[in-house]
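Cross-check.
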Amino acid sequence: MKKFILILIGMTFLSQPIMAQFNEDPIINLENEDEPFLNWGYYLGFNQYDFKFDYKNDAKHILVDKSFGFNVGLIGEMRINEFLDVRFEPGLLYNTRTLGFPGFTEESDAIREVKSTYINFPLLLKVNTRRLGNWKPFLIGGASASMNLGSNEDSLDDNSTGTFRMKKMVYNYELGFGIDFYLEYFKFTPSIRGVFAITDELVPDNDPDSPWTSNLNGIRTRGLFINFTFE
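Predicted model, tokenized:
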């Protein structure tokens, strides 16, 4: 709830200058903002992660209790032309997912908390429309590699001792959209992006008949990012 209140307060302060950009005849801000070959910035935001499970047999599904995490990172942008930019957005992403495994009577066996700290390295193509006064919509997409510092991949412990293991390196594709708003002193960009892992992240338990992982062929992360960019 506190996070949502902070978002609302921030958006309230930004709403008046942003809405002013939709006037029929606005004063043009930062006319040459997109002209340099290289541009720099940073972003702050929120994320929500889920899992897609690939089961071997039809059985009761694993439940995922999702929560909101945070994103912070830098932006390097290379201009190709008026409509295309290449962006590199290295960042730190933190999130916690709680898994509920069916078939157990003890909570200590059924519940696994999965804390993930990703260092993300996305290389993206940004496709812009023409600038419309002081705003410009865009689509963005590309590929990313993420290093999960909380993966426990090298741990000798597994679910039998309460440790859920995942692979350290994850490869994804990302798709999203947003709007650039050219304010008086900087460019502000809210955007929404989906992140989809294309590689299996599961490290199976040591016991091939494990009640936690024996029915899983693999797991893949699905994520939603809401970012606020300042350039």
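Residues 2-230 form a domain with the Porin fold (CATH 2.40.160.20). Confidence is low (pLDDT under 50) at residues 4-9. Passed to J.P. for a second look.
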